[in-house]
Design a protein that fits this description.
Number of helices: 12
Strand content: 15-25%
Radius of gyration: 50 Å
Structural class: alpha+beta
Shape: rod-shaped
């Protein structure tokens, strides 16, 4: 039994159910109506069949056993129009069956033929039919019996006065015809009713769920909005007119939630704007004091009088930290300007020349690293700000130099991907490595990759590597040249300001930063 239940459950789980609420409600309505119609139809057919069968039993009892009793005399069977007493006993309905059994054996069987003056026709019963008739109980109750030569009959058996058994039967053809006609009419009527109810139910469900459809459409539009940062314009609320219904309450709750979300986004945007303004103002105001501190430190170190060694060391540290603080202030000011959407300079920039200059500077700063170049034969030109793009290259190379041990090989490759050659459906973060010289300048996308065979970026740092103040090792000292964690965030911000993107693929022994920029179409 449990195995049967499990098989039934698996069969039901494989059924393809409608996916939308509207389709499910309509399908459920139609199924319930179909079950109701089937129940009404089955009840009507069963009731009609029982009623007509009862009427047939009444006719059997009214006919009695006069016809089968007349068969016990033997000899030829007279016609109905004979005027004797035996002819009167045979005035039965057409198709009436009569049989006489003696000792469980059918001695004679006949049926009243249809048509006036047709008389009585002797019936030859098969052994199977004879056994069925002999098996009838002699209780005077009607029972349905199938005869191979005559069809279905409603038969009644009683014991005669001579110890024989007399069987009377009436055909059930009229009952079956009436029942089949009712089944046909019910199927047509209920089928039409189901079709009309299905269409009307679908329209009604669709009309009733209109507010829910508007809620779904509004939620879909909200899901497509970039909510992570910046000013967000949410779609208008649903505003269902009947808040008493379940759908109306859902719509009202959704509108309230949408209002809360809009208020939160507005406050967040205002807070971001205040933070950007504060960072820009603070960076701007700090530039002069930091430059002044650095200048005074340099002036003190240039004093001709002898200075104690500890004081000289302190002045050197003040100068170094002032220079470092000045770089941080400049970086913060740049990020604030980029966040504010200030446009950058747009001129044709020879990216190949910038790569050569940046690698030359990196070789001087990191002589212990091995620096390799993979450049195309033709120069790669992009529209943009040469100073900021040089800063992108310098930050990427400085990042590779500071976070890899001496002896690491850093490979800088540059190429141009034509629009038709770009891998479809892949993000810049999925690119790792590149080949030299594939593509030419003019159109497409300029792809800059900085690859190193160092230890790689830690797994917990990778998701936030382009966020501000993210540092791989916060315990670095000033002797390691560690920065404030703004270099890669500047790379991402400058690339985005140029309409490009930046990505990272890192594993132990292989780390690749990929920058994509729109190439110059000219």
């Amino acid at each position: 039994m449990r195995a049967l239940v499990r098989r039934a459950g698996r069969w039901l789980s494989r059924l393809s159910l409608p996916h939308t609420l509207r389709a499910r409600l309509t399908a459920g309505l139609v199924v319930l109506l179909a079950v109701s119609c089937a129940a009404v139809g089955v009840a009507a057919v069963v009731e009609l069949n029982g009623f007509l069968t009862g009427r047939l039993d009444q006719q059997l009892r009214a006919a009695g056993v006069r016809f089968p009793a007349s068969l016990e005399h033997g000899g030829p069977l007279p016609s109905d129009h004979d005027g004797d007493e035996d002819g009167d006993t045979r005035r039965q309905a057409a198709g009436t069956f009569g049989a006489r059994l003696v000792g469980g054996t059918v001695t004679k069987a006949a049926v009243v033929a249809s048509g006036r003056g047709a008389g009585v026709v002797t019936v030859s019963l098969s052994a199977r039919d004879a056994s069925r008739i002999a098996a009838l109980p002699t209780d005077g109750e009607g029972r349905t019996t199938e005869l191979s030569s005559l069809g279905d009959y409603r038969m009644m058996a009683v014991r005669g006065r001579d110890g024989d058994v007399l069987v009377t039967g009436l055909p059930t053809e009229s009952v079956e015809a009436a029942v089949h006609r009712l089944e046909l009419v019910a199927a047509i009527v209920f089928g039409a009713a189901l079709a009309v109810a299905g269409v009307a139910g679908a329209l009604w469900v669709r009309w009733s769920l209109r507010p829910l459809s508007r809620v779904a459409a509004t939620a879909a539009r909200v899901s497509e909005l970039p909510l992570s940062s910046g000013e967000v314009a949410l779609p208008p609320p649903v505003r269902e007119s009947d808040p008493r219904s379940e759908v109306g309450r859902v719509a009202a709750a959704f509108d309230t939630m949408l209002g809360h979300v809009e208020d939160a986004l507005t406050k967040r945007h205002a807070s971001e704007e205040r933070l950007r303004s504060f960072a820009a103002d603070a960076s701007h105001e700090l530039r002069t004091p930091v430059a002044s501190i650095r200048g005074h430190a340099e002036l003190a170190l240039l004093h001709p009088d002898p200075v104690p060694r500890k004081v000289a060391r302190a002045l050197e540290r003040i100068e170094a930290e002032a220079a470092r603080m000045g770089e941080v202030v400049d970086d913060l000011l740049l990020l604030a300007r980029l966040d504010a959407g200030r446009p950058l300079e747009r001129r044709p920039v020879d990216l190949t020349r910038l790569v050569l200059d940046a690698v030359t500077d990196a070789q001087a700063a990191g002589p212990g690293h091995r620096w390799a170049l993979e450049l195309p034969e033709e120069p790669v030109t992009v529209p943009g700000d040469a100073h900021r793009l040089h800063q992108v290259l310098a930050n990427l190379l400085a990042n590779a130099r500071l976070h890899t041990p001496v002896g690491t090989t850093v490979t800088i490759s540059l190429r141009t991907d034509a629009p038709a050659e770009r891998p479809a459906g892949r993000d810049a973060a999925d690119q790792a490595g590149g080949s030299a010289g594939d593509g030419a300048a003019g159109g497409g996308t300029a792809v800059l990759e900085v690859h190193d065979d160092g230890p790689g970026v830690a797994v917990d740092i990778r998701p936030k590597v382009f966020e501000r103040f993210t540092r791989a090792d916060r315990r670095r000292t000033e002797d390691t040249g560690g920065g404030a964690g703004l270099g890669l965030s500047i790379v991402a911000a400058v690339a985005e300001a140029h309409g490009g993107s930046v990505g990272l693929v890192s594993d132990p022994g292989s780390t690749t930063f990929t920058v994509r920029l729109p190439a110059d179409g000219g």
